[in-house]
Amino acid sequence: MSTQVPASDAGKELKLLHYIYGQPNLDEIRGHPQKVIDLIHEFEKNYRFMIIGAEKGKFITKLIDEQKPKTMIELGCYVGYSAILFGDAVRRNGGERYLSLELNPEFAAIANMLVELAGLRDFVRIIVGRSDLSLHKLLTSGEVKEVELLFLDHYKPAYTTDLKICEHFGAIVPGSVLAADNVLYPGNPPYLEYVRSTVEQKREAAKAGPSQVYNTTGIAERAVQSYVEKDDVPTFRFVGNPNLVYESQLCQPEGLRDAVEVTSKIYNVGVVGYGFSAKIFHIPFVKEVPELKLYAVVQRTPKQDDDAEKDHPGVKSFRTTEEMVQDPAIDVVIITTAPDSHFALSKLALEAGKHVVCEKPFTPTTQEADELVAIAKKNNKQLAVFQNRRWDADFVTLSKLVKNGSLGRISEFETHFDRHRPEEPASDSHKWKNKVIPGGSAIYDLGTHLLDQVVHLLGLPARVTGFIGSAREANSSSYEDSFTVLLHYANGTLATAKATVVSPEDEQLRFWVRGDKGSFKKYHLDIQEDQLKAGIMPQDKGYGREPRERYGALTTIKDGKPVKEVVPTVEPPTYTEYYRKLVRALNGEGDLPASGAEAREVIRLIELARESSRTGRTLDVSPIMSALKAVDWIFPVTILMMDVKSLPDFRFFPYPVESKELLPPDDPITLNISSSWTYCGPLLTLESCKLPSSFNTWAESTINGSIMPSLFSFLTYVHDFLTRNNQSHYWLTIRASKGSDEFDIPRWHTDDLFFSPLRPPINHRRESLFSPITNLLKSTWTRPTTNQDLSTPILTSKLQTKHHEHHPALTPTPPTAQIPSTSPTPTNWKLTTTLLGPGTLFIPPATNHLARATQQAAKTAARTAHPNHICVSVRCVGCAMAAESVRERLAVELGAHGTVQASAGECVFFRVGEDEGAVHSEPRSHGDRVFVNVIPGHEADLRALMAKWGMEYPRACKTYQSLEHICHSQQNSSMASSPHGPVTLSHPTTWNFDIDRYVNPFVPAPRWHLIPKPFAYMLGYRERPPKPIGNIVIALWSLVGAFCGVALVASVSKRVPSFEARDATVIVGSFGAAAVIEFGAIDSPFAQPRNAVLSQVIACFFGVGISKLFALDPRAESYTELGGALACALTTAVMILTKTTHPPAGATALLAVTHSQTVALGWFLFPVMLLGVTLMQAAAVVINNIQRRYPLYWWTSHPLSRSRGDVEKAIQKETTSVTSHYEDSLTDVPRRLVVEHGDILVPDGILLSAEEHEVLLKISERL
Questions:
Q1: Which residues fall within 8 angstroms of residue 976, CB to CB, at 6 or more apart?
Q2: Total-model pTM
Q3: Per the database record, which ranges form the Gfo/Idh/MocA-like oxidoreductase C-terminal domain (predicted)?
Q4: 1064 in a domain, yes or no?
Q5: Which end of the chain is more exposed for a tag (fewer CB within 10 A), N or C?
């Protein structure tokens, strides 16, 4: 619908456009949305505009900041005020587009011009036409599938009808937010009534069918008649979806008579069962979460004192689950009944299209669990299990101690749920917990909590031993009331989960965890259940907080003696956090609080423990897949294991292999050379069993034999895995490596993240360039590689020198060179396999978190040991020593953890990043090895990665390096055709002349090592950059230098006989400006010797030449100022082309034409200036090198040509880089140098000197 203004104000919109476009500073306004908004506010002082205004605009902007919609839709654009204000906010929050609907084409045209001026033309799209027609087209075409944030500010009677259009096409989903303006003034009662009605009220109203006309009840007549034609009616007649429940709130900024109604679709919850579990553990917490609404309860037999409808007025009551799940208004079903009904009821709800939360125990068998997981996956619904004790205060406290390393490597982990109830319960008890039913014993009831906590913290064990039975003397029902389960881990950790009903203790033990650094002991169960039973609700003060007398104790060894200290129990987020996390998962913003896949693992451990107790044997956990292959429900399990949300830090997966390469071969596969092939793009097509032609070329030159059968088996599995996790693009690398002793000592590390939603800002502190020690575990200096993010964080400046990641991070801060992802959930995992040779080594999952902590400690120790180290090149010896030190330390400290390794026919899923990455190392391999690395990513992220490196997307190529390639790259590394792209003769703006391309090959590289150190020092050479000094000291040395430099030039010039004979000036005025630059701004390129000397030669040539030319004309004295301008201009242009820009030279050229005493010198100005610049440079190299460094370079910051012998020596190093065996290295690094704000990308084969490093650092910080 449109906004039409009264006739009295007609034309003001066009006046607004003229007013804004008539601003004298229009260029300063262009591209700045806020400046356009400010001008509209200024113009509005004289006219009444129908815009949302500043106060309500701030409120909607804040709403955008909270919701972060990818697409926002506006109904009613008018002149584009809100489109600019809100469109800019959506873009700032990572959105993709802003759609604004406007009926009036004149207003739309004005809005388009203002949007373009604001710089939002490519982001904001204004659609002209009726709002109902435009909405209908957007929804039916599939361009808009869901409404994320809808702003209604158009024809008031159309608010409700347009909302019903969105409802009709299913675009209003949980998480959708509506913001309606003008609901109080001029008012919109029909809309408020609709969004605030209950489901029953809307269903009753819907019985009358869709309305044929607009409902204008209570809307001001002026608002009804001024917008549309008289008797206008809706184009479409829909009743909407009366089953949707809205949470609606009136938001009225202080001092305004109008308000905004903010409405959101919430999740309706139906609870199956109304017993202890529902009343105590679910309903109180559902009511605590605003996004959840208790909508219905299934209660078979309500009683006078036990009736859900009476306890919760307004809640619907059903007698059967079948009846409840048919209600389309219900979004989430919570199953709280006995465990033997969990499977059937969960299946019923999932197949009815509901999300499900199932009480523990999940199911009595893994077969049932796997089937439910498969059904949830098939129906695209979430399946969670109520493992609420992950949020017990004592467990949260213990988790914190384990993860921060306070206990060290865990040797024993005991978790108890003991009580003293030796008497057998009454036989007539109706409680299922006392009955022998499937899933009804103590290990299913309490063991699910204890085992879930252990697995959640330590991961899955290697073996299980179980002791299950009854501790009571009288046990007529054969109910298994007690259990002890031993979980054996590969690294030696033993976890004991125990519960008994015969434990006459004053204080029952809850946790006793012992490690090599400390022991933690805790008594008493978590307090939340007792508080809930006592009527204390989650919102009550003190809920979840343990009294001091219940705190646990931590014992550590200090000075050889045990020291005991009380550890306060942390204040937990309480069980409410379970449902908060559930809502986030339903909104696609994270993982489930406890998924069905995770609960399935616990049920499997219970089954193994029961079997162990029955047979008296300790059973292996690892052959689960082998056992599952014997039954016909393997497919659901495969689906389960492919869900990355439910996977741990790493896991091995078998994939079907029919390949002789993975068996003892009759004709062994061998490698000719070490090289790799890489592909980045959409998933390859495997049906024809063909790969890109570059792969065939690479394979023929690299491999004797064929890896195709095993490679295609792996890629088929990978494609299935990625497809099931909504990934359709990847970076695939196949690396063939000849044997070496490179990894006889393991290189333990975690891989860095590729993609990140956030990018840390650059830090302009410059205390040190302790750069390359920052990513130490990626490699050692003798084997430089290119890692995932190709970053080498420079510790204090945050500058990223991306030169093969040869120094892994010693700091616990995250990498700063990640590609900012376009997705809120960028990929943080990868898949790998080994087709030939040994598999990758991993630290077992139970101690992976400890290994990460050890790794960080080693990095921190290395940094602390070298606090003043400054890296001066990418081959820094100091960094190399630190790298080897950390590598050797980790090899020793992590050796005690043990290792696990994928077998032939298995691939590895593992996570990356400092926080949850799997600690791993390349294996010891003295034979040939073929390794495959798959990094999934969203298409936009991979495109950005390729673009960052100057590569096309998609791409497939082989990687190699030859002598000619290195020689060519060395000679042309600084010779870009144009800073703006390729040069074309038809586009003069792309023309570029680079004098260094022709001169540098003839300029010898400085041989500082042949010059005595004191002289080299005074010439600016440093083994490491000087320490930073304050500007007071800089000012002092600038004062001394400028005085000495100018005085020296003047004093010597006065004593030169030939100068006196020609009455030469004692000192040319331009030397004053030169002194400022050469002593006060010594880091500037303008101050370097090449610029300081050659610029003056150029200035003398043009200055004297123009002066002589003008002297030929007797009238020249009348326009000498033109001659001076011409000389200065020519000097400037030539300095730019010769890269010798030096501002004082412009003054020299000017003086040579306009200053009579200087003009009189003629060509003798050359020796005068040459002597002066020589003396000034002599003073500069002496004074500036006392506490600073000068010059940064003598000729150029680019690498100079080297002899062929130097290049051949470089080949030995560089070939090692290209053919490195590092699994996480990348290949095909671009042959260009890229400098961005905070980032430097240095291509292979370029060795940075200290001067070059310093210059690039300064450039990057200035961008």
A1: 992, 994, 1232
A2: 0.50
A3: 400-620
A4: yes
A5: C
